[in-house]
Amino acid sequence: MASTSRRSTSGSYCSGNVTGERFCECGLRAPLQVSNSMANSGRKYYACPARRCGWFRWAGLSIQYSDIGDDRSCQLNSNLKTCERVKNLHTDVVYLKLLAFLQLLVSIVCVVLVILLLCKL
């Protein structure tokens, strides 16, 4: 029995698929795998088993447990840290846009004042 199955509709769940299997763009069953990279260690993902089409999907939120294995000591994976960083960057961008607007406003006021002073001379 082959470990991969063919499928005509690519890249999504089969309708009525109770097991939650995923299929790549090649039509192959994409097995659930675990990342061993530094940035995503222990995070689960699906990928094309033949590596032909480049299809890839994260399996969802993962939680990493410490060596103790205690639920209270779990830490969220780096995907939440990344999301938090994106939110912080968005806040910084909004703040910088506000500062740029205020700088423009002050520059306009200064130009108007200089024009008014020159007109009085």
Major sheet description: 3 strands, antiparallel
Shape from CA axes?
A: rod-shaped
Helix and strand content put the structural class at: alpha+beta
Residue runs with pLDDT of under 50 for 5 or more positions: 1-17, 62-77
Count of β-strands: 7
Order of helices and strands: EEEEEEEH
Mean pLDDT, rounded to whole units? 74
Beta content: 5-15%
Domain GRF-type: 24-62
InterPro entries: Znf_GRF (IPR010666)
Transmembrane segments: 94-118
Organism: Arachis hypogaea (Peanut)
Plain-language structure description:
The chain has 121 residues and is α+β, with helices and mostly antiparallel strands. It folds into two domains: 18-61, no CATH class; 71-120. It has one helix at 78-120, and strands at 22-23, 29-30, 32-34, 44-47, 56-58, 63-64, 75-76. Strands 3-4-5 form a three-stranded antiparallel β-sheet, with no helix packed on it. The model is unreliable at 1-17 and 62-77 (pLDDT under 50).
Features:
2 domains, three-stranded antiparallel beta sheet, GRF-type domain-containing protein, disordered N terminus, 121 residues, two-stranded antiparallel sheet, single chain, alpha+beta, metal-binding, zinc ion binding, 1 helix
